[in-house]
């Protein structure tokens, strides 16, 4: 026997010949011509290296070797059918679930609305959401732990594919009693950079965006006064008067509106950042993840334009 695997369609044709005793009838079942069927059976015999059929004017019968091979062929076709049925079930199961990861700002302030829209569009899909900072989301996507991720870092790792779905604005916030709250003029970018801040942890998209914005302005951020792992914790620290912080406008809009925090203008610093959907590189974004990304783009287009601070 050669090292070439026989074509399953040829095996199926051979089994039909055995069942009907006729190449013509087997060809008709396969919806091919008798001549084409004969060529495919000849190919099968060459691939297997044994004679399978004896053709006579009254029909076609199996050789002794053919009688043995036909049983193996039936078992092979049954196994192949089980394989395809199993794979099909896996595809249906995958299509009926969606694994999502999102960085904290996206997860807290945008994802609920996006998932509500997704539920209306795909009511039968079960969604699981994991929340982490942007770096961790990228790692989950790269490791294929989730189907799609959403990050707030200005740049995306080169091994990931990405699509911009919205824009966000970072703002400087302070407690009402902080000296910056009484300023009439914007805080210079250099003064912000030199001020110890309450910041998110390394790997957070918010912190990365701030650090990159300062570097673009040739500023180096001072050592943080405090590092915290959630927007909520940062806001509590700022309200207590600990120090200023830079957070998403989405995260602080309620506190600024209620007067618990003050939004401080900054001069000479661009704090607008993109929000991206990410998925493994060199791979087409498949459903149902593609639907969620389209809905997030549509919702992102309705967000108020992000204005420079």
From TrEMBL:
<keyword id="KW-0804">Transcription</keyword>
<protein>
    <submittedName>
        <fullName>LysR family transcriptional regulator</fullName>
    </submittedName>
</protein>
<dbReference type="Pfam" id="PF00126">
    <property type="entry name" value="HTH_1"/>
</dbReference>
<dbReference type="InterPro" id="IPR005119">
    <property type="entry name" value="LysR_subst-bd"/>
</dbReference>
<keyword id="KW-0805">Transcription regulation</keyword>
<dbReference type="GO" id="GO:0000976">
    <property type="term" value="F:transcription cis-regulatory region binding"/>
</dbReference>
<dbReference type="InterPro" id="IPR000847">
    <property type="entry name" value="LysR_HTH_N"/>
</dbReference>
<feature type="domain" description="HTH lysR-type">
    <location>
        <begin position="6"/>
        <end position="63"/>
    </location>
</feature>
<keyword id="KW-0238">DNA-binding</keyword>
<dbReference type="InterPro" id="IPR036388">
    <property type="entry name" value="WH-like_DNA-bd_sf"/>
</dbReference>
<dbReference type="InterPro" id="IPR036390">
    <property type="entry name" value="WH_DNA-bd_sf"/>
</dbReference>
<dbReference type="GO" id="GO:0003700">
    <property type="term" value="F:DNA-binding transcription factor activity"/>
</dbReference>
<comment type="similarity">
    <text>Belongs to the LysR transcriptional regulatory family.</text>
</comment>
<dbReference type="Pfam" id="PF03466">
    <property type="entry name" value="LysR_substrate"/>
</dbReference>
């Amino acid at each position: 026997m050669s090292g070439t695997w026989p074509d399953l369609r040829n095996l199926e044709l051979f089994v039909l010949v055995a069942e009907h005793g006729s190449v013509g009838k087997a060809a008709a079942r396969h919806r091919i011509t008798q001549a084409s069927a004969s060529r495919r059976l000849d190919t099968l015999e060459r691939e297997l290296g044994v004679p399978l059929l004896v053709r006579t004017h009254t029909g076609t019968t199996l050789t002794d070797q053919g009688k043995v091979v036909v049983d193996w062929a039936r078992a092979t076709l049954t196994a192949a059918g089980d394989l395809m049925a199993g794979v099909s079930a896996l595809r249906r199961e995958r299509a009926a679930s969606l694994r999502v990861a999102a960085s904290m700002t996206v997860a807290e302030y945008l994802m609920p609305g996006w998932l509500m829209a997704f539920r209306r569009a795909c009511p039968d899909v079960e969604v699981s959401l994991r929340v982490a900072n942007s770096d961790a989301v990228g790692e989950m996507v790269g490791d294929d732990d989730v189907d799609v991720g959403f990050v707030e870092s200005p740049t995306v790792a080169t091994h990931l594919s990405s699509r911009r779905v919205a824009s966000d604005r970072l703002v400087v916030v302070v407690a009402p009693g902080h000296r910056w709250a009484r300023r009439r003029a914007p805080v210079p970018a250099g003064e912000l950079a030199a001020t110890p801040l309450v910041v998110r942890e390394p790997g957070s998209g918010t912190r990365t965006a701030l650090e990159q914005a300062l570097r673009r302005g040739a500023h180096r951020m001072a050592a943080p006064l405090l590092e915290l792992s959630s927007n909520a914790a940062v806001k509590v620290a700022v309200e207590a008067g600990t120090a200023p912080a830079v957070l998403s406008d989405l995260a602080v809009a309620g506190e600024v509106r209620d007067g618990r925090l003050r939004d401080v203008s900054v001069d000479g610093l661009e704090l607008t950042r993109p929000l991206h959907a990410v998925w493994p590189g060199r791979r087409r974004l498949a459903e149902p993840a593609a639907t969620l990304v389209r809905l997030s783009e549509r919702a992102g287009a309705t967000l108020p334009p992000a204005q420079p601070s």
